[in-house]
Write a structure and sequence with these properties.
Structural class: mainly alpha
Oligomer: single chain
Shape: rod-shaped
Distance between the termini: 57 Å
Number of domains: 2
Radius of gyration: 23 Å
CATH class of the largest domain: Mainly Alpha
Number of strands: 0
Length: about 90
Amino acid sequence: MERRKFTREFKLEAVRLIKERGVSVSQASRDLAVHQTVLRNWVRDFGSDPASAFPGHGQMKPEQLEIARLRKEVAKLKAELRTAEQYSTTVAAG
């Protein structure tokens, strides 16, 4: 069974429902058909850093951007190393 994916807007609206309108987590869980633990995690994530809450769909956290940049750099360096190794093997062979 594949995990359900929710848009950032859906998560924000769910958090607003709980925090601003005063709907209980259990009631919101029933209304939205989302497990209570998932809703509590969303509320926690939003509360800790609202500006960067729910990254995805083009919005990555700074740490994720850095990891992606470093992975690209590692791949590039590995390719350069492979090329250098092939060149040195060819030169050594004569």
